[in-house]
Amino acid sequence: MHNLSHASQLLMKVVMHFFQTIHQGLLLMRLTLLSGLGNVNFRRHVAIPSIPKPS
Prior knowledge:
Elements: H1 2-47
């Protein structure tokens, strides 16, 4: 009985770790997508109206 509870505790730890990893990955993906979209929108808004200055 003690063995079984230990195994289930271990399983729960693994599952929780798995879910945390997935959650972090999704957050990272969402952040990357958001920053990518933000950069595209920012570039679009800035690049079109601005006249390129000679450097």
